[in-house]
């Protein structure tokens, strides 16, 4: 078995991610690990430029840790909260959320699809 070690700050193998509201781009993602099983867990790095990123409610649960940058984060029906390095955020299945990124932002996310 080969040991796999990843560095969150490596900007390698990035693919375009969700665009910022009103723009064609702004974020990138890199898959780190994914279960081979249908509906398996995904671990990924997400990097984004300043801007607003709106997420509709999705059929998945996400937990992420902020490793770089600052943002205001809100979920439907809640006031924005400032988050930064070390913040851990949980997004439940079906909950819409919004990130207003203030400075280059990077998070490590674990995504669990919920059938």
UniProtKB/TrEMBL annotation:
<dbReference type="Pfam" id="PF05899">
    <property type="entry name" value="Cupin_3"/>
</dbReference>
<dbReference type="InterPro" id="IPR011051">
    <property type="entry name" value="RmlC_Cupin_sf"/>
</dbReference>
<dbReference type="InterPro" id="IPR008579">
    <property type="entry name" value="UGlyAH_Cupin_dom"/>
</dbReference>
<protein>
    <submittedName>
        <fullName>Cupin domain-containing protein</fullName>
    </submittedName>
</protein>
<feature type="domain" description="(S)-ureidoglycine aminohydrolase cupin">
    <location>
        <begin position="44"/>
        <end position="107"/>
    </location>
</feature>
<dbReference type="InterPro" id="IPR014710">
    <property type="entry name" value="RmlC-like_jellyroll"/>
</dbReference>
